[in-house]
Write a structure and sequence with these properties.
The protein is of the alpha+beta class. The protein contains 14 helices and 17 strands. The protein starts with a helix and ends in a 6-residue tail after the last helix.
Amino acid sequence: MLGSHKLTALLLWILLTVMLLGLLVQLDLSGLSRHQSALLVNLEQRLNQRLNKTEQLLHHMAILTARSSHDLSGLSQTLEELLPLSPVIHRLHLQQLVTEDEIYAFERQMRLKYPDFLLHGLSAITPANTETSGAVIYQPVILALPAGQGDLPPLGTDLSLIPALKTAIATARNQSLIAYSDVFNQARGEPLIAAFLAVPQDPTLLLSVALRGRDLLDTEMLPPGSRVSLTLPQNGPQTLWQSTTPEAVLFYLPRQQTVGNKHLQLSLLLEYPVRLADFSWGLVLITLVLNTSGSLLFYAWLRQRQAATISYLETLEIQRLKQHLQTHSEELQQQLQENQQLTHRILDIQERERRHLAQELHDELGQCLTAIRTDARMLLQDHPDSGDSVNHHAESIDAIARHIYDVTYDLMRALRPTLLDDLGLVDAVRELIRSQHLERQGVQLELTLKGALNDMEERLNINLYRMIQEALTNIQRHASCTEVQIRLQRSDADEPSDRLELEVRDNGCGFDPSIISRKGRFGMLGMQARAKALGGDLTINSQPGDGTQLRLRIPLSQAEVRAASTPSAAG
């Protein structure tokens, strides 16, 4: 029996080792593939940036050429200063269209500037190009930059006779767009591709730049041993550039994609080198160790020597943790109750200070303002002439004092609603709603007040008033609604089931309730604090685009018990 357990553990070890090693290799190859994709994206972005920059520079050069085509010396200096702005440009040519009738006058004119100028093709026997009408035309190079570069074509060379350039030259002249040629210059070991653009306002001039394939790509970021190939897929694959660095690698991960812009589409092939060092040998070692350890543990489990003891110890630990969690839960519950009592105390003190401040404003500032207005009116009686400066100043003093009195009255009403003390909660709520002027904002409000609402204690009245006030403020600021329903109802007054319910509902834009605590919505947090201090439960139901419902439920018997256990600061 013991031998069969060993064989089972060994087979399990072999199976898991093969599976885990295969998974690690697959993960490593996936990571290399992701890196390869990121490199391809980076290469594509760099290539597109260089192509676009070169095309913008070519357009700018064409505009400069149109302005200064009469002065080749000045134009040559200007264009040569612009060449370093694009590292892709290898050389620049300016060609001019000349008919057979103009050839001799053209050569004489060019020899005034360049004594050795001679119009010629690729060879003495190369025939000139002809138009669709049969007329013979020449397109010789009249300017080649940068000066002194060894592989520049001689002035007078007709580039349209080169087969790889002929189609692009015709396209650029006919469509006035940038046209790219086929790959040429392969025989010299440095393949090039040319971009042609007709000069605006002068269709006889054609500007072109020759681009080197190795300058289009930024391969410095590639890992050593990478192989990159850039080809032009039209007319059969034409290799524009190919890098091969001899390195000792296991194999290559090839990936190919199309790059370029609307004028030039190229095929980019990146062969990513994979070496032994690219694999996570540390993880392989850890996997083998863990797998071996797991197999040994599995073998030990099969023998079942200490299962009962371990199970007993785990049971004792679970019981200890449960007791510890229960103790902490009781402590947290006690702290929560203390925090609610503290919140209740703070709210009472806040209301007392508001009442005191409102009374001080009424008694002190109100009397002073009344005295100022009385003096101003006496001055008006003494100086009834409206043209008198004293009369003018007295009217100004009276208007300013009246404005200050209105502002002070609004502050007093905001600090402590007098109707709440004089007439009770019902009339105070009605006056609060009237003062909001919701109908001017296009909001229809339906108010429902039921039950013995004026028979409750002051602490409940002021907190309910503040919560309704905050709800209306939030509706005006954020809801963008057209309908609001407010229902305040007291049920089973003076009974054990005595309870109070407040519901505020709108058809506005709604919001995500989870952002209340996350974004610090202090108005809603203050309403929740008031509800908890009163022993009530505040629920908020809302979702974007579906309005908001705020519902408060307070068991008044519990609220009275809380009030009795918390010292009041209202008096």
